[in-house]
User: Fold this.
Amino acid sequence: MLSVFLSVCSLIVVGLTNAAPVRNSSLAAETQFPYTTSLQLNGTHVCGAAIIAPELMLTAASCVTSNNTLVTLPVGNLSVRAGSLQHASGGVVSQITRVIVHEDYAGEESNDLAMLKLAEPLLYSPSIAPIAITNVDITANTTLTISGWVNATSLHWDTGLGHAHEHSKTIIYLDSSGRAGEPGAPAVWQQKLLGIGSRHSDAYANIYYHREWIYRNARAAMFT
Assistant:
């Protein structure tokens, strides 16, 4: 049974890291995206994640669940690397002790959001810092900045025009001319977090819509 589960985990790593490279992307500079971290499974980069508090991060639910279910990957195998442009070296590596998957996530792009709690709070610095949660909803053709690794070893960034989903307030779509192509990648506007990348192409969890979920679970995570 254990061998089967580990095989599933390895398939997840392959699936998440085979995304297309960031189109027309640029290499990130030191301290340009201090909130962007590498989520790792057994020491291998699988997704991005965004720092929102010293011991809390947001990523995609699809990054921490297996086979499009709500079965969470083993917490002991999950960690994040913060404060480095390289996902395989530098910065600091922190173990994850708790994963909170959105209760309405059903393996599709809607509600593809999860919160991570670290074993120890991060020490903020020019290269490690939180991103603020947005207090305004996205408007049509908002220019979003996305940062992630995709198939690269160094952090890249790109911009694209975002807009709300026509039929679902839970989702933001980014035009195909500029996207991170990586689950968990933060989408930012005016230094506010507006979206978290889904594993579904061009889709992002709408952070404004999910604010109450984020605040409620952040409070709960801080005291458990």
